[in-house]
Specification:
The protein is α/β, with parallel strands linked by helices. It folds into 2 domains: about 1-150 and about 315-345, Quinone Oxidoreductase, Chain A, domain 1 (Alpha-Beta Complex), CATH 3.90.180; about 160-290, 3-Layer(aba) Sandwich (Rossmann fold), CATH 3.40.50. It has 11 helices and 18 strands. It has helices at about 40-45, 105, 145-150, 155-165, 180-190, 210-215, 225-235, 250-255, 280-285, 300-305, 325-335, and strands at about 1-10, 10-15, 25-35, 65, 70-80, 90-95, 95, 115-120, 130-135, 140, 175, 200, 215-220, 240-245, 260-265, 290, 315-320, 345. The strands form 4 sheets. Strands 3, 5, 6, 9, 10, 17 and 18 form a 7-stranded mixed β-sheet that branches. Helix 4 (about 155-165) crosses helix 5. It starts with a strand and ends with a strand. The protein binds zinc ion (ZN) (2 copies). One zinc ion (ZN) binds next to helix 4.
């Protein structure tokens, strides 16, 4: 089968590899569409999480391996002991790889498993004609949601999960720093959890129309004084909740300064380096930092939002490529055109 195999930074090869066979409790999925995630870009450009020398803590794998974890398709074959799924079922999946025995796994919080791994990072992933997934990580795609649109459920689940961790945010004023797909997942997560006003900031005007048409306020942080904007927008009260969805020191600092006394900061960005954190500003008003890691069952909720038209996937997919054009038209293109793109999809069997 054809697959995108990671050998090293900027060394992603479209190769013909052996078709995988599902083991016990696993299914083999014929991939229709897949999505390029920010983490895939990190793997492409570096720094990477794909193990090169030291084998992965859970799977024992090292590169080369097939990347990708956002996908949708149909079950081609079920392995031994799989119940409730059959060939032909349309599915998407949570790509986490977990031990199943640690305290977090046993309590259902497998997204924080002590040996956590991901498809496409710790084992062969979904940028291929077929992918193997554990049956307990599958989600049925509802009628009315295409395979193309269902790929969005995985990234959207991140913001829904983060929002669940914050507790009741009904009526709260929310700021989202970062208008990429994770920032948008936070926006939709907050919106449908009943948040009050939501302000999203980013560099450039690429998302203004989307955010404003969804009832939010958009600020181009390169053109406007963001701190003054947040203050005005909130009547000087600042935000109840700030989602940090970029992962740099500057936005972490803004998140702290834009949060009102007793408010909450939700960190979703992935930091390339350790930020200096202003502990005194946090502590003087009992501002709390929360963090979020992927998701557990929230793909089901994301699929419902797509089915019910609460989220229009067509507005989030900004480019489509194939496996053959993935490197040049996908990854290389994204390096020069990051901000205007939300989600790039790969048509595989769809
Ligand atoms: Zn992802
Ligand atoms: Zn575990």
């Amino acid at each position: 089968m054809k697959a995108a195999v990671w050998h090293g930074h900027k060394d992603l090869r479209i190769e013909d590899v052996k078709e995988p066979v599902p083991g016990k409790g696993q299914v083999k999925i014929r991939v229709a569409w897949a999505g390029i995630c920010g983490t895939d870009r990190h793997e492409y450009e570096g720094p990477n999480f794909i193990p090169v020398e030291k084998p992965h803590r859970l799977t024992g794998r090292t590169a080369p391996l097939i990347i990708g974890h956002e996908f949708a398709g149909e079950i081609a074959e079920v392995g031994e002991g799989v119940e409730g799924w059959k060939a032909g079922d349309r599915v998407t999946a949570n790509g986490s790889l977990t031990c199943g025995t640690c305290e977090a796994c046993r309590s259902g919080r497998y997204n924080i498993c002590s040996k956590l791994g991901f498809l496409g990072v710790g084992d062969d992933g979904a940028f291929a004609e077929y992918v193997i997934v554990n049956a307990d990580r599958l989600f049925a795609i509802p009628d009315g949601v295409s395979d193309h649109d269902a790929v969005l459920a995985e990234p959207l689940a991140c913001g829904i999960h983060a929002t669940h961790l914050l507790g009741d945010i009904r009526g709260k004023d929310v700021v989202v720093l970062g208008p990429g797909i994770i920032g948008l997942s936070a926006f939709y997560g907050a919106k449908y959890a009943g948040a009050g006003r939501i302000l999203v900031s980013g560099i450039g005007d690429y998302r203004r129309e989307l955010i404003e048409s969804e009832g939010g306020t958009y600020v181009d942080a390169s053109a406007e004084d963001l701190a003054a904007k947040v203050s005005d927008w909130s009547g000087g009260n600042l935000a109840d909740v700030v989602y940090e969805c970029i992962g740099i020191e500057q936005t972490m600092d803004q998140a702290i300064r834009f949060t009102k006394p007793g408010g909450k900061i939700m960190v979703m960005g992935v930091f390339g380096r350790k930020p200096v954190v202003d502990m005194n500003t946090l502590q003087e008003a009992e501002r709390a930092i929360y963090t979020s890691q992927a998701h557990v069952g929230e793909i089901a909720e994301a699929l419902e939002y797509l089915r019910d038209g609460k989220i229009d996937a067509s507005r989030l997919v900004t480019r489509e490529v194939t496996l053959d054009t993935l490197v040049e038209d996908g990854f290389e293109y994204l390096i020069g055109h990051g901000p205007e793109n939300i989600k790039v999809l790969i048509r595989i069997g769809g």
